[in-house]
Amino acid sequence: MGVRIAIAGLAVAGLLGGCAAASPVGVLTGTAEACVGVVLPGSHVEANVWAFRNGHLIGHKRVPSGTTYRFLLPPGSYGVTNMNNSPSAVLHVVQVFANRTTTVDLPDVCP
Description:
Elements: H1 2-17, E1 26-32, E2 46-53, E3 56-64, E4 67-73, E5 76-81, E6 92-96, E7 101-103
Parallel strand pairs: 1-7
Antiparallel strand pairs: 1-4, 2-3, 2-5, 5-6
């Protein structure tokens, strides 16, 4: 009986030892205004926030205009914008660090 318990304990220890810790991430957040120009009173508009890494879209969030967006991202350099494919698009280049918060507010700069 003692041998079975010892073998079972070793098997569990081996399984737990093989578990890798999750990779650290950082937070990219800020307030996003909808890129819509003039908004009529009472209108409901949303901000579309895009996050890019190495020229590739890696995340998209839709939030009510004037509220907070949030991405959990691996450390690295990212571009973030609230514009569609506007010729006047402003891409904010930011550095995200593990276990830290990077804040970039995205105002409405659309014509």
